[in-house]
Amino acid sequence: MLTLDQRKDAVRALLLTAFDPARSIDDKRQAMSRLMDAQGYVQHSPGLENGLESLLELIDGFDRDFPGYAIEVVRVIGEGDLVFAHCHYTYGPADPRGKAIAEIFRFEGDRIVEHWDVIQDVPASSRNSNGMF
């Protein structure tokens, strides 16, 4: 069974693999299948079905529709079988501010089996100077 630090590393690897526009979708499928339960993956994001293939359709859309998109995994926190990743997604030159996304993953043994996310636009201005990240 993975240690908590190994689970955190697996989540970081999953996100950086999934949202790397330089990698082919087949390469992403293969790499992501090693980190998650591709068939039993439970998805709580309302726009996606369960399983790896629905997630890959979303990722393929990013690769096609948002040239220059990027993800920065700002912090990763783990407790028990859950790992939380606080991420900054940008969708190319037309979206320089991007979105703050909280990604939560649940593990069973060595595999990611469940996912939740919370998505917030990064605003143009803020009533404080702390920033979102």
Neighbour order of strands in the largest sheet = 1-5-4-3-2
N- and C-termini, Cα separation: 31 Å
SSE pattern, N- to C-terminal: HHEHEEEE
Determine the structural class based on helices, strands and strand pairing.
alpha+beta
Question: How many β strands by DSSP?
Answer: 5
Helix content: 25-40%
Total of domains: 1
Low-confidence runs (pLDDT<50, min 5 residues)? none
Overall geometry comes to globular
Name given to the CATH architecture: Roll
Q: State the name of the first-level CATH class.
A: Alpha Beta
Beta-strand percentage range: 25-35%
pLDDT averaged over residues? 96
Count of helical regions: 3
What's the CATH topology name? Nuclear Transport Factor 2, Chain: A
Largest sheet: 5 strands, mixed
Task: Map the helices and strands.
Elements lengths: L3 H15 L6 H11 L6 E2 L8 H14 L3 E11 L2 E10 L7 E10 L2 E11 L12
Parallel strand pairs: 1-5
Antiparallel strand pairs: 2-3, 3-4, 4-5
Descriptive notes:
The protein is α+β, with helices and mostly antiparallel strands. It has a single domain (4-121), classed as Roll (Nuclear Transport Factor 2, Chain: A), CATH 3.10.450.50. 30% of the residues lie in helices and 33% in strands. It contains three helices and five strands. It has helices at 4-18, 25-35, 52-65; strands at 42-43, 69-79, 82-91, 99-108, 111-121. It has a five-stranded mixed β-sheet with strand order 1-5-4-3-2, covered by helices on one side. A hairpin with a 2-residue loop joins β4 (99-108) and β5 (111-121). α1 runs antiparallel to α2 (25-35). The longest helix is centred in the N-terminal third of the chain and has 15 residues, at 4-18. The chain is globular. 20% of the residues are buried.
